[in-house]
Amino acid sequence: TNDQLTKLASNYAAIGVRSPDLTREQITLMKSVNPDMLISKYMGFASGYRVVSNQFLKEHPEVLLKTESGEIHRGLLNSGDNELVLDPRNTLWRDTLVNAAKKAVTEVGYDGIMADQTVMVNHLYEGFTGINPRTGDPYTTETWRDDMYTLLGDVKDAIGEDKLLIANSIRDGPGYFDEGAERFLEVTDGFIAEGFKGPISWSTSMYPNEKDWVDDVEMLTSIQEEGAYVV
Question: Does the global pTM surpass 0.85?
């Protein structure tokens, strides 16, 4: 409701909208309450969630990663994940994502895009069966990251320098430094560190050890020294 949107705008400097999408009128209302508020739209850069419909995927199965036997591959980070995985180099998917991102910021009025499922740090799981159509072999983490880097760059070019592209997830300090995630700052405006305090399965009473905590803080410092955002 308008009252709820007004309350959000009165209490937050930034929000990420996963579902449902806001209208231009709703964003205008929130900006009238808090002109400096940043409002980003969620987009699944691997699954296509909040970007394409199930009907789109049925009509264009060529955008999906398949197994060696030609069946549709499911799961990006673990074998229990049932989400579809779109080929980051497929031209139709890339154009569709780029156009959707551009529309979100130019026509609807979002301040930027939250890019989920980038695998900047998290590895593709052992036994990943999604075939890279250009090699005929399963995607490797390294190739996936290279292709996602290009995809993020295309989206950033489309939305422009005055709009934000924030990518998830660099996980934590050790992962950020060990896996070279800083290069993604060349094509984004910042990162989300979902695993900052430790694995998602940990109790809220558990925290990183001293070394990992130091890496976490140094990660924050490093990113901000580059003039980028970190969540």
Answer: yes
